[in-house]
């Protein structure tokens, strides 16, 4: 009976192999094979194929379970993958009807497996909860599948020239560490080597496509087999449009309100321009906080810089408006000076029709005012009334005191009163009993208030005074008119500049927007 059972077992093992979806535990003879030592199974050497010169081929496949956002500060991203390796080891062929499942790490360590690693992974680790997340399937012909779950942080050098309108291509490089291409070749499986969880969602990126690739390279130690997994991702711009582009656009538009404010509303216009400029600067600093320091210009830098230039242009426009308004007053004041110089010249020369040329205006005006001031003071001295003091032995001393007092009164009049008004109302001041020229009441009583003042005016002097009075009144009239007209002309010039700016600034900003978005979305690669 025992002999019949042994023959049946041998026939069963040598029967045709049938693939099954269920797995068997490690059979005893495989366990004994792995524990027999390197004389029977050498787990330090790659499998030997039918021809010893043939290399071991390892096929890779990857299922992406999770993927985190791309971090611009550290320039990396996180991956959570199921990493699968396929190779054939004839030494582990068995006669079981089903595949053998290995779940024990101790058994796994006794087997030979490829020494692949992730070249640009900053951190990589296996999952151990609640059990080590791996499996090994050994088919009857020795084909092996090694599947494990790995989480890693992959370094990706981001190109931020188009940020936040950018798209990125990041690569995960996988290669063998110890075996050159003469012993081991790594390649992707032909049928869907890289797949992903369709429910993957990132906050600011979305996956466009995944591409397998090769990256075999020659090094000083030999040629090493290498494959890459390329991730083509595109940044979601909705968040950045709402957080950066829309607020800054509104700030620029608000700064244009200055063109509709009154020209003389200096505090309001200055406050509006400075407030918008500071707010825009704060927005620009907040956008740069999330980015690393790079040596090239980013798209967000171009946008923020252009917006700040538009707001700064509003401040420059207000400066020009204010200057144009003040210059308008000066231009019309110059016209008044022309009339004034002409009137003075006509009085002094006796010819009312003679007018100075515009080229000699400055010299004529200075000369005539100097003469006016000298002649006026002289005329005041001549027109001052003389009170005869009582004749006694101190007559000479009293005469000196009176002359000194008269000079003091004339100096006070000269300092306190306006020359134009004094000359225009000369007759009134001369006859006014309370005028400083007459001295105070005490002096009048003291030196004989009963005496009458001598009238020292002559007909020529009267006509001269009338001419001076008429000329100065004409000057005052033209100065008042020039000031009013100058103010109106200045406001008109300033308003014209504001009206031009109301359509130049928006039109320029629209042209900039069209150029910016077309260039960064469609033109620049």
From TrEMBL:
Subcellular location: Cell membrane; Membrane
Domain Neurotransmitter-gated ion-channel transmembrane, residue spans: 245-517
InterPro entries attached to this UniProt entry: GABAA/Glycine_rcpt, Neur_chan_lig-bd, Neur_chan_lig-bd_sf, Neur_channel, Neuro-gated_channel_TM_sf, Neuro_actylchol_rec, Neurotrans-gated_channel_TM
GO cellular component, one term: plasma membrane
Any GO molecular function: transmembrane signaling receptor activity
Signal peptide start-end: 1-20
Membrane topology value: Multi-pass membrane protein
Pfam families, sorted: Neur_chan_LBD, Neur_chan_memb
Record field: transmembrane: 244-263, 270-291, 303-324, 503-522
Highest rank taxon of the organism: Eukaryota
Keywords noted in UniProt: Cell membrane, Ion channel, Ion transport, Membrane, Signal, Transmembrane, Transmembrane helix, Transport
Domain Neurotransmitter-gated ion-channel ligand-binding: 33-207
Protein name: Ligand-Gated ion Channel
Source organism of this protein record: Caenorhabditis elegans
Gene giving rise to this polypeptide: lgc-58
């Amino acid at each position: 009976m025992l002999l019949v059972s042994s023959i049946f077992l041998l026939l069963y093992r040598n029967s045709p192999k049938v693939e099954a979806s269920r797995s068997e535990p490690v059979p005893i003879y495989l366990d004994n094979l792995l524990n027999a030592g390197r004389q029977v199974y050498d787990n330090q050497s790659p499998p030997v194929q039918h021809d010893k010169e043939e290399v071991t081929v390892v096929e890779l496949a990857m299922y992406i379970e999770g993927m985190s956002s791309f971090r611009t500060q550290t320039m990396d991203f996180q991956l959570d993958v199921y990493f699968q390796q396929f190779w054939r080891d004839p030494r582990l062929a068995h006669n079981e009807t089903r595949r053998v499942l290995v779940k024990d790490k101790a058994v796994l360590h006794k087997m030979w497996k490829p020494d692949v690693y992730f070249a640009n992974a900053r951190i990589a680790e296996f999952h151990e909860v609640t059990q080590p997340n791996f499996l090994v399937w050994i088919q009857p012909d020795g084909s092996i599948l090694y599947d494990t779950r790995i989480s890693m942080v992959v370094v990706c050098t981001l190109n931020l020239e188009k940020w936040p309108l950018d798209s990125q291509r990041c690569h995960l490089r996988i290669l063998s560490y110890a075996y050159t291409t003469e012993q081991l070749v790594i390649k992707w499986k032909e049928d869907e080597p890289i797949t992903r969880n369709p429910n993957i969602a990132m906050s600011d990126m979305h996956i466009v496509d995944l591409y397998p690739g090769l990256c075999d390279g020659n090094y000083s130690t030999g040629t090493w087999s290498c494959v890459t997994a390329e991730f083509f991702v595109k940044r979601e711009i909705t968040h950045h449009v709402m957080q950066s582009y829309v607020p800054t656009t509104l700030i620029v538009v608000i700064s244009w309100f200055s063109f509709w404010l009154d020209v003389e509303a200096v505090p309001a216009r200055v406050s509006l321009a400075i407030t918008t400029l500071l707010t825009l600067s704060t927005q620009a600093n907040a956008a740069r906080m999330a980015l690393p320091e790079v040596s090239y210009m980013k798209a967000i830098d171009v946008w923020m810089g252009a917006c700040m230039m538009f707001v700064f242009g509003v401040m420059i426009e207000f400066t020009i408006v204010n200057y144009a308004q003040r210059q308008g007053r000066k231009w019309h004041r110059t016209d008044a000076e022309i009339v004034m110089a002409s009137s003075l010249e006509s009085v002094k020369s006796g010819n009312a029709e003679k007018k100075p040329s515009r080229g000699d205006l400055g010299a004529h005006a200075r000369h005539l005012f100097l003469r006016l001031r000298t002649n006026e003071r002289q005329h005041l001295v001549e027109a001052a009334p003389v009170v005869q003091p009582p004749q006694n032995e101190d007559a000479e001393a009293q005469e000196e005191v009176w002359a000194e007092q008269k000079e003091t009164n004339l100096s006070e009049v000269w300092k306190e009163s306006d020359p134009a008004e004094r000359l225009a109302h000369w007759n009134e001041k001369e006859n006014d009993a309370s005028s400083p020229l007459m001295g105070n009441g005490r002096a009048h009583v003291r030196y004989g208030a009963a005496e009458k003042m001598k009238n020292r005016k002559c007909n020529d002097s009267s006509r001269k005074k009338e001419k001076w009075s008429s000329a100065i009144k004409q000057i005052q009239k033209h100065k008042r008119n020039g000031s009013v007209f100058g103010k109106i002309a200045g406001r008109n010039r300033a308003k014209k500049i504001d009206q031009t700016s109301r359509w130049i600034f928006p039109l320029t900003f629209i042209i900039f927007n069209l150029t910016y978005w077309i260039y960064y979305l469609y033109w620049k690669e």
